[in-house]
Specification:
nine-stranded mixed sheet, BirA Bifunctional Protein, domain 2, disordered N terminus, 12 strands, alpha+beta
């Protein structure tokens, strides 16, 4: 792990090089959440990449795991359904004291979405929320069937324990999009909805460039330290 200057006073901004095993990430988050709750460690945002794997949220349906033997599958304990993590995808784990910010989980999720939207805007990508669909979406134009094609470029799933958040977001930078075929991502199987990445959109951004954008956008989104309001 590499500790960087924090975008917020009193918060650890951590960036890991290489591929972080998922079990290691879970153990770190569990430990840090307990420490934050006890007042013995500061809040943290941790940016990682994982080896190819699938994670199951608390609402995951067995039928949505299309290829159970393709990659390791982990019970994540976060909200949501199945998702994919792998090289070329930046995962941001957010461990903050939600109690100190009003305790509103919906507002926290709204801020995570805004963080992703503002990050994408720095690459001239218009990321958007969609009612009834988790994540951040990109309009790809007419789908040839009288509707519009929309692809998910970022996902999120959170958990709160003792008032402390963990898990967080994932942003597709330059990952192998065929790896998503082993699951029904977030339970959404309609043909008009797919997945995309910055690279798939023709944007060749390095991971350090994405990290810089995420840090600046996080400062804008969470920077006041005041209670969160949707």
């Amino acid at each position: 792990m590499t500790w960087k200057n924090s975008p917020l006073d009193g918060l650890d901004w951590i960036v890991s090089d290489g591929l972080t095993p998922y079990a290691e990430a879970l153990a770190f988050m569990e430990g840090r959440v307990a420490e934050i709750a006890a007042g013995t460690a500061p809040e943290a945002v941790w940016l990682v990449e994982h080896p190819p794997l699938y994670t199951a949220g608390t609402s995951a349906r067995a039928a949505d795991l299309v290829a159970p033997d393709r990659f390791p599958v982990y019970e994540a304990g976060r909200g949501g359904q199945y998702t994919y993590h792998g090289p070329g995808q930046r995962v941001g784990y957010v461990m903050i004291d939600l109690k100190a910010r009003g305790g509103d989980v919906r507002a926290f999720v709204h801020h995570l979405e805004e963080w992703l939207i503002r990050t994408l805007a720095r690459f001239n990508v218009k990321g958007e929320r969609r009612e009834g669909r988790i994540g951040i979406w990109v309009d790809r134009g007419p789908d040839g069937r009288g509707g519009r094609r929309e692809d998910k470029i970022a996902a999120l799933g959170v958990r709160v324990r003792r008032g402390i958040t963990f898990h967080g977001v994932s942003l597709n930078v330059d990952c192998d999009l065929t790896h998503f075929a082993g699951i029904v991502p977030c339970g959404i199987s309609e043909p008009a909805y797919g997945v995309t990445s910055l690279a798939d959109l023709g944007i060749l951004a390095s991971m350090p460039e994405v990290d810089m954008a995420m840090e600046a956008a996080f400062r804008e989104t969470f920077g006041t330290g005041a209670p969160l309001a949707a």
